[in-house]
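As described in the Methods, two query proteins were run sequentially through the folding procedure within a single session, without resetting any intermediate state between them. The first query and its resulting C-alpha cells are shown here.
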Amino acid sequence: MRGLSLTARLGLLFAACTAAVSLTAGVLFSRASQAHFVELDQQLLESRLAAFRALVRDADSPASLAPRLEALQAELRLHPDLALRLEGSEGQYWFTSAKGLRAPGRDGLHEWQQDGTDYRTYGAPLRPEDPASPRITLALDITHHQHFLERMQRLIWLTVGLSALATALLGAWAARSGLRPLHRMAEVAAGVSASSLTTRLADDQVPQELVELVRAFNAMLARLDDAFQRLSAFSADIAHELRTPLSNLLTQTQVILSQERAIDDYREALHSNLEELQRLAQMVGDMLFLAKAEHGLLATRREPLDLASELDALLEYFSPLAEDRQVAMSRSGEARFAADRGMLRRALSNLLDNALRFTPEGGRIELSLASDARGLRLVVANSGAEIPAELLPRLFDRFFRADPARREGREHAGLGLAITRSIVRAHGGDIRCESANGWTRFILDFPAP
C-alpha cells in the first residue's frame, strides 16, 4: 500500500467496503431464504403427516394396512416429491413409496442426502399416545431448493465482484475529482520561487475539509513572502552600511598614499582608519550576536539581580551625557529578577542611549519597575517627538531608522533595538513600544519564575 497513490487507496477502500457490505447482505439474504424454505417444508410435512395419520391411524399390522393402501397411494400421487415410509414398532418395514430410501426414522425435522438427492425428513409415531405405535417417516425432495440457493449464492458472488469493481472505478474517479484542489496546491508549490510568492489559492473553490489546509498554505506563502522581503531589505541595508566605512577607508588610504606625507599625517590617517575598523568590527559582532539569538544559541548565565541597583548604576554611567543635554533622569520601583547581568545591562544601555539621543533639551527620561504574581514589567520612557504608529512594528528590525530627522548619528547602525529584543526574548520576555502624548515608552515584560 505504501507505493499506491491516494486515489488508488481510496478506490480500493471503497471497493473493500462495498464488497463487505454486499457480501454481508448476500449472506444474510441467503440464510434468510434457507430458513424460509425450512419453515415452508416443515409446514408442508406437518400438514401431510396429519393427513396420512388420518388414513392409516388404526393400522396395527401390514395386513390391516392393505385396505388403505389405495387411498394412501392416491394421496401420495398428489405430491410427487414426497415419499412415505411406515414401519412397525420393532423397525420392520410395512410400507415404503420410495424403494431404496434409507432415511433414518428419527423424530423431528432432519436433512438427508442419498444418491445425490437432498431430502428433508420428518419422523413421528403414528399414534403419539401409544408407546408401541408404528412409526411414520416422510421424506421431501428438496433438490430444487438447493439448486435455487446455489444459484443465489453464485449471483451473490457475482454481484459482490461487479459492485466492488464498479465502486472501485467510481471511487477512483470521485477521489480524483475531490483531490483536484490538492493537485492545484502541488502545482502552485512546484511553481513557487522568489518571484512568485504572491500567488494564492482561492479558499472559496475547495471542499470544506480543505479550506483550513488552503488557508494554512496561503499563510505559509505570505510568511515566506514577508521573510524574503525582509531578507532582501536586510541584504540591501547591510550592503549600504558596509559600503560607507569601506569607501571611507579606501578613499582616505588612497589619498594618503598618493604622495609623500609627514609622519603626523600618516598617524592621523591610521587613527581615522582605526575608528572605521572599530565600527565595522562592532557591526560584525552585533550581527553575529543576532544570528546566535535567532538560532537559540545565546547562553544566559542567570543570577538573582536587584534591578533597582542595576538601573541606578546605569543612570550614574549616563548622567554626564544627560547633564550635557540638560535631560533629567529618574528611577522608581523595586524588583528582583534572575538574569544575565552582562546581557541585561547591554539591553538597558541600548534603550537609555536611544532615549538620550531622542530626548530634547530640558526633557525627561523615566525608568520604572513593577512586579506582581504575573511577572515583572520594566518601562523606559522619554519625552519628545512621537513615533508614527505605522513605524512602531518595525522599530526592532535590523538597520531600521524610524526617521533620519531624529538626529541618528553615523556611528549607530540601527542594530541596538534588534539586539535588545533578542536579549529580552532570550530571558523569556517580550518588548514593545508605545508612543503617544509626547512620550515614547519601551515596555519590557518578563514572566514570573
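Immediately afterward, the second query was submitted; its sequence and C-alpha cells are:
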Amino acid sequence: MKELKCPKCGSVFSVDEADYASIVNQVKNAEFASEVNRRLQELHQQHLAEQQTAEAKLEKNYLMELGKKDQDLNRKELEITQLKKDLQNIGQQKKSEMDLALAEKDKTINELRAQIAQSNNQQQLAVMEVRQKAQSVLNQKDVEITKLKSDVQAQKMEADSKMAVLKEQYEGKLKNAQDQVDYYKDLKTKMSTKMVGETLEIHCSTEFNRVRPLFPNAYFEKDNDASGGSKGDFIFRDYEDGIEYVSIMFEMKNEMDETSTKHKNEDFFKKLDTDRNTKKCEFAVLVSLLEPESELYNTGIVDVSHRYPKMYVIRPQFFIPLITLLVQTSKKSLDYKRQLAIAQSQSLDVTRFEQQLLDFKDKFGRNYRLASEKFQKAIEEIDKSIDHLQKIKEALIGSENNLRLANDKAEDLTIKKLTHNNPTMKAKFEEARAKNDGGLFDD
C-alpha cells in the first residue's frame, strides 16, 4: 500500500500498487497535466469572478443601507434640532406666561391689600365718629338726668313742706271727724255684718261722687276683675294730658262689735298689696273700722310703708282728704314724669342709635368677612394656576430630558455597536474599512 498526500488540501490517502502505478502514469502524461492546469485556472478565474460579483453586490447593498442610515440620521438630527428649538420656544413662551400670571397675581394681591387697608381705615373712622357722637349724646343725657334729679329733689322738698301744712290743716279737722266716727259706731249696732261692709263701700262711693267735680278726669269704680284670684273694692286713677299720674287701690273693711272673731287691719295688708300689684296701682289704702279702740288708727292717716310700699290705713272720714292729698302730691311729680317720659324716649333713641351702631358693625363685619373669603378664594385660584403652570413646566422639562437622552443615544450610535453579535456584518465592515483605510467606517 502506498500513501499519497494531496498538495492542495493536505489530506493523506492510501492506494494499492495498481492505483499508484496508474496515477504515476497519469502524472507523467503531459496532456493530462495541461488539462488539469487549464481546468484549475478556469476554476480559479470563475471563483475570482464570483467573488468580485458578490463583493460588488454586497458593497452596493451596504452603501445603499449606509446611505439610508445617513439620511435617517440626518433627518433625526434635523428633527432633534427642530424639537430643541420648539422646546426652547415653548419654554420661553411658558416662562413669559408664568411671569405674566405671577405679575397679575401680585398686582391683584396688592390691590386687594390696598382695598382692605382702605376699608379698615374707613371702618375705624366710622367707629370713632359713632363713638364720639354716642359719647356726646350720653354726656348730654347725663347732664339732663342730673338736672331732672335736682328738680325732683326740689319738688320733693316742696311737697314735704306742703304735706306738713296739710297735715296741720287736717289735724284741725280731726275733732269734727270724731263725730262721724261716733255716727258709724252707732250705725254698726243697727246693721248686720254684710250690711256694715256694703254700707261702708256705699258711703265712700257717695262721698267721692259729692266731690267728683274736683276730679273731672278721674276714674273711680268698683274692682270687678277677679281673674287674678282676688279683687279689691275700688280703684281710683287720675289723668292729665293723657298721662296717668296717680292710682290707688282701695279696700274697705268693717265688722260688727258682737262678732266673735275680731280681725286686725294687718290681716288684710298682704291681700291689698297683691291686689295693688295685680291691678298696677301706685298706692294701696285700707279704709277700715276695725280695731276701733286703737289709738294708732284713730289718730288719722297711718303710713304702713314699712310693711308694704306706699300703703296707708285710714278711717272713713279721711277717705276724701287722703285722695286729695295723694292727688296734689302726685301732681307735683307730673312735670317730672313728663320729663322722665321724654328722657326715656331720648334714652330709647340712644338705645336705637346704639342698636343701629351694633347692626352697622355686624353688617360691616359680615361684608368684611365675605370680602376676605373672596380674597382668599382668589389667592387659592391663583395658587392653583401656579401649580398648573408648574406641572406644565415639569412636563416640558421631562420632555426635554427625554429628547436629550434620545440625542445622546443617537450620538452614541456607532458601527461597532450596530455590528455587535453580528459576525457577518462585522466582517463586511472590516473588509470595507480595510479598502477605504478607515475613513467613513471608524468606530
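The mean pLDDT is 76. We note this only descriptively and draw no conclusion about the first query from it.
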